[in-house]
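Re: folding output
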Amino acid sequence: MYKIFIIMFVMILTTVVNSSAKGNGNMDNPFFKKYSTPLQTPPFKEIKFEHYQPAFEEGIKQHKLEVEKIINNSEEPSFENTIEALEKSGDLLTKVANVFFNLTSSNTNDAMQKLSSEMAPILAKHGDEISLDLRLFQRIKKIYEKREKLNLTIEQNTVLEKYYKDFVRSGAELNDTQKSELMKINEELSVLTIKVGQNILKETNNFELVIDNEKDLAGLPDNLIKSASETAKRKGKEGKWIFTLHAPSIFPFLTYSENRDLRKQILTAYANRGNNNNDFDNKKHLSRIAALRYKKANLLGYKTHADYVLEISMAKSPDKVFEFLDKLWTPALKMAKEEAAELQSMIKKEGKDFKLEACDWRYYAEKLKKEKFHLDDEMLRPYFKLENVIQGVFDVASKLYGLKFEKRNDIQIYHEDVTVFEVKESDGKHIGILYTDYFPRESKRGGAWMNAFRKQQKVGGKEVTPIICNVGNFSKPTEGQPALISFEEVNTLFHEFGHALHGLLSNSVYPTVSGTSVPRDFVELPSQVMENWASDPEVLKMYAKHYKTGEVMPDELIEKIQASSKYGQGFASTEYLAASYLDMNWHTLTTDQEQDALQFENTIAEKINLIPEILFRYRSTYFNHIFSGGYSSGYYSYIWAEVLDADAFEAFNETNIFDKNTAKLFRENILAKGGSEDPMVLYKKFRGAEPSVEPLLKKRGLE
């Protein structure tokens, strides 16, 4: 139900943050008129902060009138006058929400964060008023009950079923008392989830590791030192070095710093975000969220929040997810213990007698990797100039799907770091617009993501092309040196570009099922399958070129990448799976009693026998995905989708990685279809059979 739930959908996919605005100026408000920009892209230069609140208010007002008109239609309910009419409704609200919530994730400020908090309960109430309206539900129900006689297309049938189920799952069949209780729960959740995300951003920005003794930089790569120096200069501390909790700073520091005390200091700060008993503490917020989610699920007739969420996923039930995680956990933990023993031996070999801790893992793992494979990440970085990697991923898409990417300098951007590309078919036909925004800043939340400023659709015969953004937090350029990103960041860029292709190559009629509007454990297939091309030798030779000489990455280095591809998979799999267990346990609670967050987390760690040398990839207090994003009971989906992507890439390997026919099948049955059909049906249309888990176990070395 894209139009009705667009606000909540955008808030879920982007980490929303708060703001306040009173304003008039409706006459010059760019949201109130058709954009006059190229391809009707958002006119960022014209949009002022004071435009948002009036646009939200008018958007809600118009949407209410449009829905009332549908409800009061005296004609017999039909797909066209009810479902299709709902798909067409709420355009203004969608228009302002898409801009506002994208920017609260990628270019926010205190005012926008405040307005976000103020609008959250208003938007939640608006969504509830529509989804709990019995008159509207009765129209939808009448259509649903006679659907087999309506001669609907597969997509129309899917959209109708989704509307019906979403209304039921939103409480349309509850009595008035229950509806009132549900609305209160939704309102409180809308505020709390925003608060958690804001607190994580503030905690991340608040910490600085300031180094004023050059000896404490021992072991750190030159580019990291240079970046830290520039950060210090920017913050008025010239002559010093500042390291932060943003990924391009903390993780290289943990990997290369020879100063164990400083590694411990920065990791402790990272691991305690949202857990400092200050104004940004998340413990009570997240415990309340879990309790409210249980109450909501229970009110709607579900045993747990996970049962509610997973009903519309590929997994279908919590038991299925736990069974899947257990199958991977045993070999992953066994491998992690073996890796820990190797790292402890290396510590001993160096003549040191301390016990391996979490702050040591990356440092010694990198040293061991260099010893075993004569390879470390800094050897690769000179070959991964950001512009070359971007061109590389474009070239892959061109060879697979015939796409062209043309830089547009005439389209407005929301920040100087943003670049805009027009995406076209090989014959020059316009497909959509792609914004890329890859550098960290204090106004941007951590991580990497894809979202849409406008979704693809053809409802009512009107062709609407997509406007997609890819956002990341990669290593920035430094003085005299371009942005040289790590191999992990390369994989992330390919991953998010896979999501972008899912949005760009969508070919649906209805926005409710277009692009990435698919079950959570299916949405990661298009993104994760792209990572396979990132490390393929043939593809590396296309884009991995030394930034100084232009020399293509030598075969020797590529062979080392291949040889080391399974190295460290015990650690990587264990920290990820541990977070998946944490998510599932928070959301299979069968009580609305608020938990002691730290005690709960420790209990789960003991329950799964997580070794102390490895932390949860995300501890509860900064688990943005599940307490502020849309992945509650769904963090497992990354590795679920990895089963699909490993099996899907096998299809290309059976011929060649740029096989046109296989790419055509993938585009037509996966990328173009969105959520218009059952995901397993779509997958089998592409692959000819259900996926096998064996390629994943082989890929991770867990067989």
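--- second protein (sequence, then structure) ---
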Amino acid sequence: MPGLRHILGISAYYHDAAAALLRDGGIVAAAQEERFTRKKNDPDFPRNAVAFCLRQGQLNAAQLDAVVFYDKPILKFARMLETYLAVAPGGWRTFPVVLPSWLGEKLNLRKTIREEIPGLSATCPILFTEHHQAHAASAFYPSPFTDAAILTIDGVGEWATTTIGEGHGDRIKIAQELRFPHSLGLLYSAFTQYCGFRINSGEYKLMGLAPYGAPRFVEVIYRELIDLKADGSFWLNLEYFDFLRGTQMTNERFDRLFNGPPRQPAERIEQRHMDVARSIQVVTEEIMLRLARQAKALTGQKHLCLAGGVALNCVANGRILKERVFERLWIQPAAGDAGGALGAALSAWFEPGENSLGGGRKVSDQKDTMQGALLGPEYSDEEIEQTLRNHGAVYQRLDKTALLDRTVELLQAEKVVGWFQGRMEFGPRALGNRSILGDARSPKMQSVMNLKVKFRESFRPFAPAVRRERVSDYFELDVASPYMLLVAPIQEKLRFPTGPGASGLELLKQKRSTLPAVTHVDYSARIQTVDQSDNPLLYELLVRFERATGCGVLVNTSFNVRGEPIVCTPDDAYRCFVNTEMDYLILGSFVIERLAQPHKVERREPLAPD
């Protein structure tokens, strides 16, 4: 495409590898590699995501003007070497495992990228951003603000673990940073592993478990584990942690502090684990609140943008909003490392300097440029029908009006409905295109979805989807939450009092509101507001459901089962559907009833690495 400039951003080699494509600064496509390979949190080079981005942009590799990687490998390798030397001989077990990959594809990434993307022009520059610069760019440049404070928080990039910065037009300036090993992301991940969940994918489980517990370990955390300052900076007491030396995050001294060994994934969740989860959540919220106040004090800005994996802690985000530290928040929907691919490309486009490829000043129109995060692949009805024929599926094709009316009927009848429409979401949340839907009024919906459809822990809450203009009628929230990244309480008038004496997971048995399927045990909900311009089909479904029932809220959870990525293709969706107890699948214009299908099919195995 002559005259247009195309930048490909890439993240890889830690977790959540992804690719993103810009055309003259506008976002064309973005997707995580896991969706194509079916390997959850796939860290490998995102060759499938890159191929998708090029297809979506109708490009070949030779037409790219730059490829940008989301961190600086030499700086990261230097940090790792320095750490190993500082704790030697403590890290001798892990160093020989880590070293070969660094001496191979990671250190000489320019060579690796050219090998992985055949056809790149010899003159196409391969650039690198710092990790937290990529996070900051992913937060600020797509936001609806021309000026904002920026807060990035994750495990670790090269050295930085937390940064506070400021964005103005086409420039981002980092003002302060906290450095490894003092990391809120690593602290939260340590507790995630201790409570028996997987690091880099189980943190949201820990957050969901927290309301079942009591914060009885908060003072222990402050006294023994962390020295927290008024500005949100802190030091970890490394005597309790093992992540510098080995493959485990914590050690036996940590175990004694919390009255027992780490929970193994298959073991029963005890009240102690719930109390630990609640305690670290309380501490995390306090740290993030202090960091937000420090960002306000440093910048004087009215708006705050957030990114980094810790920015997916929607309870803490809700706390910052509730405290009114800033007038408005905007959180990158792919806040973790996947979003770093987008941030790397945006940084190369907007940032002035010798590597700049842009781009002009960022102009705000009071709406973000993420297109509802619907940046992945989409499939035509013809492609969907061919998939169904390949499986010998039994199905019915309906026009749009009949399809919506049929879906409303099914939801009213308390059926669990798979919903596959349009472009796949970028980021960890299904926002109405790769979703499973249910009636939020149903007292049984949470347990049915968790145990029979998602095959996951019974305590896990579900998110409500509600039209933006109706959100305040149901929840104590007066702003948009399009990416399911804010938690707020359900309105008092909709709540039911709970009986005395119940604690822990017994709280699951109590009906807490008129919307029991989306009301967590503390009367909170992780809210998705739906705007007609971003997702007109889901918006219309909500309109019709409210017209039929008087209720404007649906359950929206991601279309996947425990341990698998969200579905990407019609084939993924059909295979997942027939192997659960989901009742119906709305796949494009097609309605499929599970019990009418001829047989189950095997789920697609993860793709083997090349």
